[in-house]
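During the second year of the project, the team shifted from modelling isolated chains to modelling whole assemblies. The rationale, set out in the original proposal, was that interfaces cannot be judged from single-chain predictions alone. As a representative example for this report, we include one of the complexes processed in the last quarter. Its constituent sequences, exactly as entered into the pipeline, are reproduced here:
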Amino acid sequence: NAGVTQTPKFQVLKTGQSMTLQCAQDMNHEYMSWYRQDPGMGLRLIHYSVGAGITDQGEVPNGYNVSRSTTEDFPLRLLSAAPSQTSVYFCASSYSREGYTFGSGTRLTVV
Amino acid sequence: QQQVKQSPQSLIVQKGGISIINCAYENTAFDYFPWYQQFPGKGPALLIAIRPDVSEKKEGRFTISFNKSAKQFSLHIMDSQPGDSATYFCAASSRGYNFNKFYFGSGTKLNVKP
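Output from the structure prediction step:
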């Protein structure tokens, strides 16, 4: 069991570039979420999904897209990277709201 | 506007002492309150959680105290150990359609001195 796997672990982007952060889980969890973590801000929800084909916006969705074509994968797309999107991104999955497992994070720097 | 306010931002405790972290919320629809522990370079991990129908929940050295009328809850770490040094986050979510929308506090960095 790998749990929640995030790739890449580190990424540097130039302003305006696009990229996809990958997230995969092998626990057959229905619920998956993306958070960003910034100093002094805690974790803020970007997008979440309650099952394949179903996604919804969190607190800070602007500039990000998601899709959920399979139960296992929940990629996060940055459409046109901005310095304000420099952050650590965490993907999480769960069978219920009471047991979220987080990945180890992707540290993204936008220059 | 942060939905869950957490204090203090940082905390230094001697080994064997009690660490106390506080959180407050306004949204009365919140009905599930977890605490997460995060070590450097790792993702947060669920530590303990409580629902508002009980005032206290204890798991080993970790206790959540919940005051529904004051809309406050706190994490107590008894007999704090250097291995407890980490960042702690409180969180909350509400019942109904948005049950998977978690709101996190800003975090408390705990340093337990040997």
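The radius of gyration of chain A is 13 Å. The longest strand of chain A covers residues 42-51.
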